[in-house]
């Protein structure tokens, strides 16, 4: 019952929302220029209102909804193999119904990510090709897509127990229906397993009734499956997300997305952090798939996934109860135990092991395991307030995520999700299970209560929806990339400095935010690295407040002439920041080259030409129209520079376009101290 204890504790209640601001959360938005998102079922079930979310980044100056190559994915350099070689990403979000030491609610946040091999430019899924490779790409490749339709799910008809021929024919039709132009996070195979797998009947469902999967009148072997939950008893399809896995954590089945594929190496959901009641940390560590194998029922035949979620039922089905390894990646080129042990000796954070990926295999592989998730206390926030947490300094809820290290050195494409789980104390969530369902439920839908007791009548109606006692919300990022470190980055802490927010005033933006840097106060040591980059787009809803061309995001990075309460940039010849940094991504760029590129959002790649800056795109050799002063002809997004900060000091900076006193403040500080002080 251990997994039931956690599952029940970590679901939530009430009308709440969660919106991620860094990395920018999509809330299922893509590229629409409407105030509300067009399709709340595009990739996942957020349970959020339709107004939140940020569009996918764009490379250029014009709106794009036809060419995926013009989308912009943030590129983070990953952590190194050493414990001190951390690449830190501030994950930031706001949620509506409170958390932490708030006595009105019990809650937690769960942060996870999923990655796969990036491949090369030819790996993006072909649109209409019907070759095996085209089909494989469409079925596996993590992508944002270019249209807002969700992928089509082709379900089985009639009997659950199909023949191999029937199953393979349906699978072929399902893969043919997958569209390269539509987004994809979880795989079709993952959702198909979810539709077939029986629901966990040990869960507390209050007075909610979960329907069986009866596809026809003649289907005599129906049962409730894991695509129906208390929050989603109708079994609505949102992307290829499995509703039961979404609603409960830690999940009792492997979160692998299908059969292991050496080419794509799609990971399971990797646990990064649990933020809630720290008394649960032992159970979180015990049940996290990162370091503890999970079992599922494996059947003989074409459809190898059984319906049972326990060994006894699996045996009755004629299946095997198989243990699966979670992995961050598999080092296919490391083909001996000795070589695998050499990799393991170099990794201080990841565990690297030599063993099979599943218990029914005898083929050993060099498996890179993710570390245990961080477990800590949730930040305190108040109810009915998408605002800051009770912290000093005053920020939205944040977590410093250590980006993963991939020993292969391969570039990965990833997606990150934050789940917000809440419940009340109207029942003992730790000890309430299926025997309290139905008429025995301690809570019922919209009850009427008499507060005076027998003999007097004062009937009051309560607004209780047992489908929301408890409840889970989530937001997810757009696709981003994790790049290997260069040799110059070895041994260094790397801080990621990004831009949050979008065009519009506070009312037009809500529940999103106005422009700001994140973190806007960065504390680091001399010799540390900082990667300054940002993502924006040209598809903001029209007629929103802001500078420059309507509907466009533009940002830059310029040192300020004074402290944070000033408004003017510092002239280069008086700057102390640029004389104290060097670029690791453009090693021969001069201080003036770096300053010009960040000030112009990359429109000028430098003051003068250098190895990563063609002369015609430099300021002195420019052959295009001049940069417009409000950055209108600069690109919406910019890869920026990885900078090594060589000198201690307090450096203040701003965005010249968006910083408008009394309207919005887009400023920040980098506080650098010598490590031994």
Describe the model.
The structure is a single chain. With 677 residues, the protein is an alpha+beta fold. It has 3 domains: 2-291 and 370-423, no CATH class; 438-472, no CATH class; 489-673, no CATH class. 12% of the residues lie in helices and 23% in strands. The chain has 10 helices and 32 strands. A hairpin with an 8-residue loop joins β20 and β21. The two termini are 50 Å apart.
Write the layout of secondary structure elements.
Elements: H1 2-9, E1 18-22, E2 57-58, E3 71-72, E4 75-77, E5 87-95, E6 97-99, E7 106-117, H2 132-140, E8 143-145, H3 164-177, E9 182-184, H4 188-196, H5 243-247, E10 270-276, H6 281-287, E11 294-298, H7 311-317, E12 320-324, E13 329-330, H8 337-346, E14 351-355, E15 365-369, E16 374-377, E17 381-383, E18 397-402, E19 412-423, E20 448-450, E21 459-461, E22 471-476, E23 480-483, E24 494-500, H9 506-509, E25 516-518, E26 521-525, E27 529-534, E28 558-559, E29 581-583, H10 591-599, E30 638-645, E31 649-654, E32 667-673
Parallel strand pairs: 4-23, 5-24, 10-16, 24-27, 26-32
Antiparallel strand pairs: 1-5, 2-3, 5-18, 6-17, 7-10, 7-19, 8-9, 11-12, 13-15, 14-15, 19-22, 19-23, 20-21, 24-25, 27-30, 28-31, 29-30, 31-32
């Amino acid at each position: 019952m251990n997994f039931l204890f956690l599952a029940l504790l970590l679901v939530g209640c009430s009308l709440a929302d969660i919106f991620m601001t860094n990395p920018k959360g999509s809330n299922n938005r893509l590229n629409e220029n409407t105030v509300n998102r067009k399709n709340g079922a595009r990739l996942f079930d957020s349970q959020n209102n339709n107004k939140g979310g940020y569009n996918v980044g764009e490379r250029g100056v014009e709106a794009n909804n036809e060419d995926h190559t013009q989308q912009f994915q943030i590129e983070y350099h990953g952590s190194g193999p050493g414990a001190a070689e951390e690449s830190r990403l501030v994950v930031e979000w706001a949620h509506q119904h409170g958390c932490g030491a708030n006595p009105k609610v019990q809650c937690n946040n769960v942060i996870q990510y999923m990655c796969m091999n990036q491949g090369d430019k030819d790996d993006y899924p072909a649109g209409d090709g019907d070759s095996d490779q085209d089909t494989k790409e469409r079925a596996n490749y993590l992508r944002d897509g270019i249209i807002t339709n969700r992928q089509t799910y082709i379900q089985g008809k009639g009997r659950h127990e199909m023949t191999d021929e029937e199953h393979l024919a349906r699978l072929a039709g399902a893969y043919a229906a997958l569209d390269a132009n539509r987004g994809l996070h979880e795989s079709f195979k993952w959702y198909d397993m979810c539709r077939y797998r029986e629901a966990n009947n040990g869960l507390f469902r209050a007075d909610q009734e979960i329907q069986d999967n009866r596809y026809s009148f003649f289907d005599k072997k129906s049962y409730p499956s894991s695509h129906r939950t208390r929050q989603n008893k109708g079994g609505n399809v949102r992307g290829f997300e499995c509703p039961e896995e979404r609603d409960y954590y830690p999940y009792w089945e492997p979160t692998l997305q299908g059969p292991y594929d050496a080419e794509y190496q799609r990971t399971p959901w990797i646990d990064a952090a649990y933020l809630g009641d720290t008394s649960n940390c032992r159970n979180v560590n015990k049940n996290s798939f990162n370091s503890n194998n999970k079992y599922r029922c494996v059947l003989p035949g074409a459809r190898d996934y059984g319906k049972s979620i326990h060994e006894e039922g699996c045996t009755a089905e004629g299946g095997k109860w198989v243990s699966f390894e979670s992995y961050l990646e598999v080092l296919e080129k490391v083909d001996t135990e000795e070589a695998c042990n050499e990799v393991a000796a170099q990794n201080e954070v990841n565990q690297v092991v030599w063993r099979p990926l599943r218990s029914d295999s005898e083929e050993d592989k060099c498996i890179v395991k993710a570390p245990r998730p961080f477990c800590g206390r949730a930040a305190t926030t108040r109810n009915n307030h998408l605002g800051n947490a009770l912290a000093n300094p005053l920020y939205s809820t944040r977590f410093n995520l250590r980006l993963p290290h991939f020993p292969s050195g391969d570039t990965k494409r990833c997606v990150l999700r934050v789940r917000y789980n809440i419940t009340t104390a109207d029942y003992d969530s730790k000890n309430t299970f299926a025997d309290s369902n139905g008429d025995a439920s301690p809570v019922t839908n919209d009850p009427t209560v008499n507060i005076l007791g027998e003999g007097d009548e004062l009937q009051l109606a309560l607004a209780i929806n047992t489908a929301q006692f408890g409840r889970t919300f989530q937001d997810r990022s757009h696709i981003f990339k994790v790049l290997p470190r260069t040799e110059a980055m070895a041994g260094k802490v790397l801080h990621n400095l990004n831009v949050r927010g979008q065009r519009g005033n506070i009312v037009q933006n809500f529940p999103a935010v106005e422009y700001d840097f994140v973190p806007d106060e960065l504390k680091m040591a001399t010799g540390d690295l900082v990667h300054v980059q940002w993502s924006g787009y040209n598809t903001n809803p029209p007629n929103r407040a802001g500078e420059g061309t309507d509907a466009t995001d533009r940002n830059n990075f310029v040192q300020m002439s004074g402290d944070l309460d000033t408004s003017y940039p510092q002239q280069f010849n008086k700057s102390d920041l640029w004389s104290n940094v060097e670029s690791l991504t453009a090693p021969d760029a001069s201080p003036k080259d770096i300053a010009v590129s960040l000030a112009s959002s990359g429109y000028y790649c430098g003051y003068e030409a250098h190895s990563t800056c063609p002369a015609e795109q430099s300021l002195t050799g420019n052959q295009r129209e001049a940069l417009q002063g409000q950055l209108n002809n600069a690109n919406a997004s910019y890869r920026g520079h990885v900078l090594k900060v060589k000198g201690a000091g307090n450096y203040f900076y701003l965005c010249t376009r968006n910083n408008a006193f009394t309207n919005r403040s887009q400023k920040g500080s980098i506080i650098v101290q010598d490590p031994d002080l």
